[in-house]
Amino acid sequence: MGCLTFWCPCITFGRIAEIVDKGSSSCGVSGTLYTLLMCFTGFHWIYSCTYRSKLKAQYAIPENCCGDCCTHICCECCALCQEYRELGQRGYNVALGWHGNMERQNTGMAMPPQVPGGMMR
Known about the structure:
0% strand; 7 helices
């Protein structure tokens, strides 16, 4: 995950965004928008930071706006890896996307138990 995120953060971000948005946005669209923001403005971290906030709100993880933004500004790759890992601990196979996870859940494959807390560092 770390190498993919280092070389292609748009893929990691797109996967995270698709799960956080519960399939209403695709990995490809979110990843493309992330790439365009990164290439033309350099403010891609604002976009990814909003998804960190959404993720934390969905799972009632205490938010630290300043700390979260600083994490994305200083080490975007670390922030994305942390969010990817958090979704994995919540029972998602992030690489499958939203619809793949729903199919997996509907076919009776066990989802790992929910993990309280998370992303506290």
